[in-house]
């Protein structure tokens, strides 16, 4: 494989992307910083196919990233390969409003091959190539220039190793017939809605005990206000106001702005400055949360009762047995909320009752719930058996 090193001129980027566009797949990784900002700061993009690899410097003044971004988001003939690519995909989405497609995530593929639910990149490289990854540059400040040779070599190795691993994984998936299992997961990863951060919805991430409509209405207004402030200032939302303070303000709203100076977690200056005024405006504009927006009391568990909860536990045990027997990560087979919904009587809209998941797990899960399966210990091993007296 030819290693180009760091590319920081537009002609070289355009030529590289033209060549890569002829490949069946490219492997992509990014280096970024987000500790001190709302938006991740893209510092480096590494890309490779089976023949060549390079790191591209997006921080170079005057750099034109369009050829690369078009390759990732517009070219449907080239498969884009990532490892645990959620944050890399988010960066591309922030730059373009689109996601790389089609895509393949090697961490998700490893789940189908029985390599755990979240295998790390280093362990993946070790298991497929027998190479110990040098982690010395892992905590580099990638925004600082110039980058030295060790940093660039470390970054490019991420894609050169993965370019070698991907065909091996693909062959294993073909041999096991599990490639089709991943289509739904890969489409879910590529769904742009996963990366759109709607300020109207961010309140759902804040933990709060109250279920009063007026409290939740204030929480929604405050969380939206904080998100807009964080975006405008390009600061982590916790630097504006922490979650626990947002929840406390929603439950115990100050009567006037000067009261903010006595709120734990806020600067005393907010009692009289502009940001404090905007916070108060958010509280004053809040309306009780409408009934159709109120969060359920964990809807899938609601109404299950003690017996339903026990059935859900049995389903989780069945999931462990089945994932062990077919050597696949249980997280890929079924989610806990699907199991709880099945135990609670739901039969529609559950992924475990459709497609390959039904064939591999859902059929037995349904039989267990309906009393046609039971647990048994045979030869010291826990297994499932058909219930003799099933009704």
Looking at this protein, list some descriptive labels.
391 residues, alpha/beta, six-stranded mixed β-sheet, two-stranded antiparallel ribbon, 15 helices, flat
Give a written overview of the molecule:
The protein has 391 residues and is an alpha/beta fold. The protein is built from 15 helices and 8 strands. The protein has helices at residues 10-20, 66-73, 86-96, 106-112, 121-129, 149-176, 183-190, 213-233, 237-240, 243-251, 274-285, 305-326, 330-333, 336-343, 355-369; strands at residues 2-7, 25-33, 41-48, 52-56, 79-82, 103-105, 373-378, 381-386. The strands form 2 sheets. A 6-stranded mixed sheet has the order 1-4-3-2-5-6, with helices on both faces. The chain has a two-stranded antiparallel sheet with strand order 7-8. Helix 12 packs across helix 14.
